[in-house]
Amino acid sequence: MWLNDQTVDLTVLAPGALVGLLLSGQQVITVMAYHEAVYGQVVYFNRESGSLYLVDAQNQFRLLKITPETKIYRWGRLANSSALQSGDWVRLISQNDKNENPDEITVSRIDVAEGESFLPGELISYNQETKEMSFKIIEDKPNNSLNFKNDVSNYAGQDRNLLVKGLVTARTLTTKNSFLVQAEDLIAGEELEFTRLKVPGQRYQVLAGVKASSKIGISPPVLQATVRSWGQAIQISGYTNASKLYLYVPGEVKTTIIPDSEGQFLVIREDPTIKTIQVVAVHEREGGVTGKYLTVPPRGMFFADLKGHWAEREINTLAERGLLSGYPNGNFLPNQPVSRAELTVMLMRYLQEPTTSSIPMSPNPFVDPLPLWAEKEILRAWQAKIITGYPDGCFYPERLITRLEAAAILAQTKNRSAINLEAKDLSYLDKNKIPSWALTQVCFVTQTGLLKGFPNGYFVPLANLTRAQAAVIIFRLAKL
To answer: What is the pLDDT of residues 109-165, one digit of tens each?
Structure first.
């Protein structure tokens, strides 16, 4: 047996390897195996440097190295590097061991497939059992290199239209709105472009790539996602109103995630080698798709911009419990002002374990619409009488929240009966700037330590609350 062009024992063969067999009847004479085969489309090949730029079957951009020893096959025959062109669909065999650096892959063999150019069309159907996908293409816009006579069926009721079929495989690059999806995520009637490979003996040609777009008027789903790392593990969490998510790690099979009833999701992976992750959100019924690329921050850090920050310990502790999230770029932005919606979500993530989570949802009592990512938490906070709106009936979720407003909200989260609330005890130098209606609330947050004044003796009631200050409030609230 040969593995990566070296003689080995059969016991080293692992699942996932690409295997070629030389048979004599039912008897195997020779086994040729490779640890890794990469499938994709050539973007550009620099013959001078040997650099090959490729979009692989996971829609990932990859840089590979071609050497004079690399064997290139086209039409089943050995060829030179001039046979490799931009747009070609290829299978690459790597010289690297599967545990070696994936960013420095040297190619030992390339097989070029014969295919069509991308054709515009419309999806008719996809059969998940047979893996057959049917397209309607417009005869007025045929590719001159195609011969449709071999696989065209009559499309009833549509003049000058052709119905063409293709087979979906595990290596078919299927995207929607440029995001990697699965064939079953495409919806009949969506416009797309497709290209097929010629495979001898197949009833229908194999689909190499399908590039679809959501129907006009379909909005992408909401997706908030962040990644944190500590020790040997990483945590991917966030919110979406999509029905499912795909988690893509380069070189691995996708992970399908179903958000909970509130749209929250949390995944923990114990793999210190992961550097980047793509999260794709799919609306299965409407057809909307969106996605984000996440960069894993340095190990031991939840957020890249917290090192040395005065609230680093509190923020990291809450993040570890899943009560806080940052931004997709790996930052927390601790000094950025926090909105009314953001503070409400932070509070409810802590408070809904277990009391408020059982409260039935109610219609929006506010005049203004609520953002989808925060709607459930805001409604629960209103039902629990933790928040109220403004006199005009609006909640203003995106408005930056002041320290005074934060004090009023926090005062509703705890029983104040056991605390001696005397406004005369306030010693802030700007006490006269605190409205009379808010003196009791400011007394409460001061005595409990939830929200304190500044070292200079001022409370600064109208200053905006920052994300770091909000996080510390939640941390202190959890300890009361």
So the answer is: 899 988 777 889 999 999 999 999 999 986 655 443 444 444 444 333 444 457 888
Please state which architecture CATH assigns to domain 119-212.
Answer: Beta Barrel (2.40)
223-300 architecture in CATH? Sandwich (2.60)
What is the signed CA dihedral for 303, 470, 425, 381, rounded to 10 degrees? -150
Same CATH topology for 119-212 and 223-300? no
> Phi, psi at residue 183, to the nearest 5°?
-60, -35
Rounded CA gap, 244 and 283, in Å? 7
Strands 89-94 and 37-46: antiparallel
Report the predicted TM-score, pTM, of the whole model to 2 decimal places.
0.58
pLDDT digits (tens, 9 = 90+) for 292-337: 888 887 666 667 788 889 999 898 888 777 677 777 666 889 999 9
Structure-derived torsion over alpha carbons of residues 30, 31, 37, 41, reported in degrees to the nearest 10: 30
Q: Topology of 36-113 in CATH? A: OB fold (Dihydrolipoamide Acetyltransferase, E2P) (2.40.50)
Residue 313 near residue 306, CB atoms below 8 Å: no
Contacts of 138 (CB under 8 A, 6+ apart): 120, 121, 160, 161, 162
